[in-house]
Amino acid sequence: MPETVFLPGERVDLRPIEEDDLEFLQTKINDPRVWRGIGRARPVNGAQERDFFENVVCDDDSVNLLIVADAEPVGTIGFHTIEWEARRAELGYWVAPEHHEQGYGSAATELLVEYGFDHLGLHRIAARVFECNEASQALLESVGFTPEGVHRDAEFIDGEYQDTHWYGLLADEWREA
């Protein structure tokens, strides 16, 4: 796997996603403990993962990075739905189940949020989490995100409707913390 580190950190590094990472991504995104938490209801085959890589990861309208701990990929994190004029973006991430509860998601989120505010000039970062994903809600709050509202029964995940909890963080709030 490539050694190019884009954002180095103490616990994790964030690096560009490369073609060599597609097998890891496809395997982990099909794990029910990942796809349920991010609201994905259908399996991803190799061609679909390659399409995601070519049309989303390689697109200039988003930032998609691999979370790496001790030179091993553990998840992904990125900004999508970037609105440059309004200087806002939506944060998304997942961590492979065997790496849960080790602080990798929080460390990666802190790195990317700092990059978003300090290097991209974002004013606001939003994130959405499904009600079944309490760990992700706690992660966002621990990093400084504020709960902003709930969209009731907004997604159909794993056979039932789930509320979507929205969170937000402003650049000034981040810098004050």
From TrEMBL:
Q: Which UniProt keywords apply?
A: Transferase
Q: Does the keyword Metal-binding apply?
A: no
- Name all N-acetyltransferase domain ranges: 12-168
Q: Which GO terms describe its cellular component?
A: cytoplasm
Report TM segments: none
The molecular function GO annotations come to: protein N-terminal-serine acetyltransferase activity; protein-N-terminal-alanine acetyltransferase activity
Checking SUPFAM superfamilies in the record gives: Acyl-CoA N-acyltransferases (Nat)
Which PANTHER family does the entry link to? RIBOSOMAL-PROTEIN-SERINE ACETYLTRANSFERASE
Q: What is this protein called?
A: GCN5-related N-acetyltransferase
Q: Which organism is it from?
A: Halopiger xanaduensis (strain DSM 18323 / JCM 14033 / SH-6)
